[in-house]
Amino acid sequence: MSLAERLARPDILALPPVDIAGAPLEGTIRLDANENPFGSLVPGRPEINRYPEPQPVALRRRLAELYGVPAESLWVARGSDDAIDLLIRAFCRAGQDSIAVVEPTFSAYAQFARVQGARVITARLTADLEFDPEAVLAAVAPAGPKLLFLCTPNNPTGTPVEPADVRRLAAALPDTLVVADEAYGEFSDQPSLAAEAGPIPNLVVLRTLSKAYGLAGARIGCAVADPAIIATIARVSPPYPLPGPSIAAALTVLGPERMAIQAERTARILAGREWLARELAGVSEIKRVRQGGNFLFLEVADPGDLARRLKAAAIRVRFRPNAAPGGVRVTVGTEAENRALLAVFGLGKQGRPSRRADLVRDTNETRIALAIDLDSAEPRRIGTGIPFYDHMLDQVAAHGGFSLVLSCQGDLGVDPHHSIEDVAIALGEGLRQALGDKSGIGRFGFALPMDETRAEVLIDLSGRPFARFDGQFATEAVGGLPTQMVPHVFRSLADSLRAAIHVRVEGDNDHHKVEGCFKAFGRALRSGLAIEGKAGELPSTKGTL
User: Fold this and answer.
1) pLDDT exceeds 70 at position 449
2) Is 202 exposed, middle or buried, given 0-12, 13-18 or 19+ CB atoms closer than 10 A?
3) Under a CB-based contact definition with an 8 Å cutoff, are residues 84 and 111 in contact?
């Protein structure tokens, strides 16, 4: 008998298989699910008249790939909250079984247990809100709980649980499912335990797309465990738990071309967390600042007064007096939101808005994601599938003095044309969005770098698109980049950036000529993007650009 069979509720094991229509099969006439046969009236979503897959195969495989586990060891749920509920319903009998938690922690563990009629055994963090595995073991082992929930890093305190401590508890409690809730794992220095769920038979790991991947509204999460445990929670799962639009959203967000942007956003949140922690550390009314996940945990002297000031500033946080006296959990927001929080504590000034843009552009031929920060020189990571084009775009960003993270998945097996053109369009759109209202910019750019090649680029960020390219190339391609596409790139940039771009190039070496055009464009952009005037001041006698 497997561990899952020993621990599961006997009545759950006795349930017959769920009788559902199953996944749609292409090419079949579906008359087995009592669905409306007509496509829905939701624009762009005619297929949601049909029930979705009970466990979407493509999403299950993608999540398994993301977390480095076999697909049969993973169950997709409606957020990790749903996975918590499924575990408790599958393994806890009302009035007989119990779960264990380490307070203060995520309240859903105890809430779902009480709804199920299970008892809640509590251990506690130390007075300094640290995790003590010996104290936890001493508190929970005598009760023999069916499940021990460990939130790592912990919500709301940010306390990490060392992987070695999780393994030790799993070994010491062989008849308890030890559940490592890694909802905030992407924001942690600790390695994930997902790959060890299964090899360690009583370890379950929870993950979610709500936090790092920005899909809180889609409700997508998963449990990773030994396949026998997965089969047990499948018995209590609803027939069609995941809405079709949520499945589609998750697959889109987890597309390979999006991953570099996801990593950049996570890094940005972590940098914002560090910055907030440094700024708040010197505030006299804050007794302690802890970091973890995508949030801070503060202990303040007068929570009532802080609550009044936050309400006046229309800022919502979570007060957690059960975690610590004056405990406050604060989520890391955008730069503007973080500055608004600091202002409540009398810190900082409202400076210029950040000149950043995140953009995705999907067509039938290409899927593109990019992030631009005009006021930071790093990071620069570019992947279009055309290495020489990557190098040229890197030259634009490097000489332009801005950060660029760009990824493109295109139909290069057909022709590079679509990828080259669509990337240029997306780059121009990203630059235009990052410029915002253009207040204070230099507007004009001019560059004339020379060796044996003379490349001249003039730019006017006027809002009026115009492109002119004077130059000829003798070869068909340079490094896999068709030279006929070079003028097209600058025309696409001019149209999407809404700028006037004049390029003139001459010389004997086509490689140097192409490179000179992109370098000169970057140098010209540096001048045009530079802040020279005051906020709100436009470089135009018309008063508009």
Assistant:
1) no
2) buried
3) no
